[in-house]
Design brief:
Helices cover 62% and strands 0% of the residues. The protein is mainly α. Helix 2 packs antiparallel against helix 3. The longest helix has 20 residues. The radius of gyration is 20 Å and the shape is extended. The two termini are 31 Å apart. The relative contact order is 0.08.
Length: 130
C-alpha cells in the first residue's frame, strides 16, 4: 500500500528495542513516581516535584551515574598517566579506539561496563527478557 513505512532492518529493530527497554527501566522507578505524584498534586510547584525525585534518589537510582563517572574518570586518568607519550585522543577515531580498548579489557576481565543497562541486579535481572 502506498505510504506504508518500509520494514525495519535488524539494526533499526535493535535500537528501537533498546529505547523501549530504557524507557521501561526508567519509567517506573520510585524517583519518577514520586516526581509525577508530587507534580500531579501541586502542578504549580514543579520545583517541589523535581526536588522530591532528586532527594529520593539514593544509591540505587542515582548511584549508577556516580559509578559511570568514576569509571570514565579512571579510564581517562589511566590512559594519560600510563604513557605520557600517548596523550588523550584529539579526534573521533582516537576516542573510538580508546573506547574499544577499554570495553574489550573490561569484558576480558569479566567486569561490568557502567552505563546503559542498569540497574545492576546482583542476582540477575528479574525483568522479563525476550
Amino acid at each position: 500500500m502506498a505510504g506504508d513505512p518500509a520494514p525495519a532492518h535488524g539494526g533499526e529493530t535493535r535500537v528501537f528495542e533498546a529505547v523501549l527497554a530504557a524507557l521501561a527501566d526508567h519509567g517506573f522507578t520510585p524517583t519518577a513516581i514520586v516526581t509525577r505524584l508530587t507534580y500531579l498534586s501541586a502542578p504549580d510547584s514543579i520545583q517541589g516535584a523535581l526536588a522530591a525525585g532528586l532527594l529520593g534518589g539514593g544509591s540505587r537510582f542515582l548511584g549508577v551515574t556516580e559509578d559511570c563517572g568514576r569509571f570514565l574518570h579512571d579510564v581517562l586518568t589511566r590512559s594519560s598517566a600510563a604513557d605520557p607519550a600517548r596523550p588523550l585522543p584529539t579526534d573521533d577515531a582516537g576516542w573510538d579506539a580508546l573506547a574499544l580498548e577499554t570495553v574489550t579489557a573490561q569484558r576480558a576481565a569479566g567486569r561490568f561496563v557502567p552505563g546503559l543497562g542498569h540497574h545492576v541486579h546482583k542476582q540477575g535481572d528479574p525483568g522479563p527478557r525476550g
